[in-house]
Amino acid sequence: MKRFLHKIALFLVLPILLWGIAEALLPVTAFTHRNSEAICFVTKIPHAASYYPHIDSKMQAVGDLCHHTPYQVYKEEVWKTDEWGFRNEHFAFDPDIVIVGDSFMQGTSLSQDQTLAAKLGAVFDGKVTIYNMSPSSMSEFDRYLTMGILQKPKLLIFSMVERNVPEPIVLFRPEQHSTLKNAIKTMLGFGNLNVYLDKAFKQYSIKWLQSRINHVKGQGIPAADGSNMFFLNGIKDGHRPGDLMQEADVLLSYKKYCEQRGIRFMFLPMPNKETVYFEKVPFVKQPEYLLTLDSVLKARNVAALNTIQLYNEYRQTQSRYLYHLDDTHWNSNATGLVAKVLHRYITDGQLLKK
């Protein structure tokens, strides 16, 4: 009986083990339509960052709104991450500028040299060290400063997409964090062991098979004008009452946090695609959330780039799109435009002066 049970166990366990090994060793993008989903930690395997460190990946990616539809647009994406899982060629311990933001700043649906950090670095001719700490939060930035992982920069650029509202900073308290847990994270980080374990247990191959059987595809909302542009929320885009003042309060607290540490602060809002191309949604008029927020921030002396105004002026003379047709995020035209304006803003304001 024991021999029979042993054979049954072997029969069941061996295929699962082989499947897990295969899943762990396959290319990171084998079962996803773009890099940003492929390299994200999903399981509870202890890890120090949200994204896989030391990644060097290349794939033909498509957008989140139209994948597995006739409207998907293939884009060659090169992705490299540093030792902390952030999208940089290498880690910068003592940067001049740190960018803290969301998937826009990370460069979802962009290749490595098309991200804002890369474009801004190129405009500065490589003379300024820029560290892209995205996606992340001000609380995470505080943790890096407190632990001495990162030296304070001269300038911190915080960015967030229009539809979201930033959270207040939760200051890092080392005494409240387990030394054992940190030791386990460090141990599993050697040789990217936690990456292989995460890949093995998040079951992307099974989820891919299920999605193909069920014909899962992007759920983008088509533009009303019959073009090939798609939106995430369409006419449902908007904010709750009180969001604007809450966001202004939080951004002011970010500025004060930075001032207390001798860091200059500026806010870089990322307009919703629906706001930029409002006539295609269609909205009767352009949503005014970001324009109003900019006025409130000016009154509170919080430095901010009026991105939506910049985009509106661009569209008056240029026909090239600023966002991918099949994706929620901006394209390299937009990152190049914003990088040039940021360079002028930073230089004219002497924001990198000690």
TrEMBL record:
Localisation per UniProt entry: Periplasm
A single Gene Ontology CC term: periplasmic space
Pfam (any one): ALGX
Pathway note: Glycan biosynthesis; alginate biosynthesis
Any one biological process term the GO annotation gives: alginic acid biosynthetic process
Species in which this protein is naturally found: Flavobacterium silvisoli
Primary site of residence: periplasm
Residue ranges occupied by any AlgX/AlgJ SGNH hydrolase-like domain in the UniProt entry: 255-347
Name under which the protein is recorded: AlgX/AlgJ SGNH hydrolase-like domain-containing protein
